Amino acid sequence: MKTGEILVIDLFAGPGGLGEGISSVTNKSGNHPFKIGVSIEKEPCAHKTLTTRAFYRKIKDSEAGLKSYNDYLLGRVTREELFSRFPLDAEEARQETFYTPHALGADNSKIHKRIVELVKNHGNKPKVVIGGPPCQAYSLAGRSRNAGIKDYNAVKDHRHFLYKEYLRVLSIAQPDVFVMENVRGILSAKIDEKIIFPRILKDLSMPGRVTKITTPRYKIYSLVVEAKDSLKPIYDDPSDYLLKTENYGIPQARHRVILLGVRADIERTPGTLTPISRRSTVEQVLADLPKLRSGLSKRKDIGKDWESIVSKNAITVKRLLKKQFNQANSLDIEPFKKLARSASQPANSLSQIPEHLVEWYASNEPPCVLNHETRGHMESDLLRYAFSAAFTQLNEGTSPKSCDYPDVLAPAHENWKSGSHADRFRTQAANKCSTTVTSHISKDGHYFIHYDPKQCRSLTVREAARLQTFPDNYLFEGNRTQQYVQVGNAVPPYLAQQIGNLVFKLLESDYSRS
Length: 514
Hints:
- By secondary structure, the protein is an alpha/beta fold.
- The model is unreliable at 152-159 (pLDDT under 50).
- It contains 17 helices and eleven strands.
- It has helices spanning 17-23, 44-59, 63-73, 79-85, 87-96, 108-122, 140-147, 163-173, 197-205, 207-211, 282-286, 303-321, 355-362, 379-394, 461-467, 480-489, 493-508; strands spanning 6-11, 34-39, 127-131, 177-183, 190-191, 194-195, 218-222, 242-244, 255-263, 295-296, 376-377.
- The longest helix is centred in the middle third of the chain and has 19 residues, at 303-321.
- The chain folds into two domains: 6-279 and 491-508, Vaccinia Virus protein VP39 (Rossmann fold); 282-353 and 375-459, no CATH class.
């Protein structure tokens, strides 16, 4: 199958993780069979990131293109100047991301018209729809917040029904295959006291039932559990659709429901993802990045002051931990000296990174580390961060709960000892995969404390992006808060590539080969 033979329609695209992975798939001839026809995203900064990356994919294979992109990364040219050097590629990138942010539901007439054009121009060649409707209404955290809203009514929350926008696109595009991703909370979310997931499955298998458009039926497969009847997939448990990313080479425990829909007239059965036996750890994928110090918030930020505070905290932390761990005295948690808050130099040796991720991260390695800047922390939180990171070291990679903190470190939080915020401060242990990187990382770093107490800080955007398996040359546009949100909402691209390989193998035998 030749380059661009499979049309991809990318919905709710975010910064482009799912599209990045699928578009990176290659066949035996080295061609890229998937071509993104359109990516739809409503958030302006994510849309800007999406467009920059679409442009990069179009110019990366030429020496002049890669040099110009690196000039942009180094700040030598503006984004406008970069795009002006390759006007045709820039226009194609803007067209791919529909020029400006658009939202399904609000901009349907424009979006649907564009999809109709793409499908018509693509002819009888294969088509794929990908994407995951926003998950706030399904996530456990979102449902907890909704429960606190007076007179909240799930039936009236449009976010529960954004998947119907996905159904409308399925009815228009009538793809061979679709991939839909969402949070695990979708399995237990309820409307009128009834679990909504069986209804979603039924609607996805028969989109025309909802849209009133004559549409093919679809068989819905799990990516991780083989169906008992391959041509009529039925699974014993809804959790069979739950994919645990740490089992597939991602250094993060991100558990997501991913549904693979195959048009009913396609008689072949998709494969399932192949687990990787050895899990990737946080330290393996972060250790080579330049060391940084955190900033000081609520006061003037001076490096020597930070060193003094963290050095004093190291003494306090050792004293407190001696009561729980005999080996506390041997801890080396004195802060590094003269650390910067951001890094411009390239990463160090990639020797610790698992083999399957080395080339993935470092392909067209950037001339500098991108999006690697720390946030500021209050002085009282610096002590808690140091305690949490040191405790996790001594406790074989298990972060402390609120009950493990001495009273002198308790924050002014009325629920601190209640157990409802037991892991308010959570270190991402060096010897394990990380917990789920979520958009909450944009609000504070308490759940994402770096494992190294000598740096005493939360994770940077780049570190979060590494845990999400974004390539190192993937630039996130916008301010730091907006970058965190983009990374937290994304699908891990390396996982998306594995899904893309399954889809390609399924479609390959139905269409002409290269």
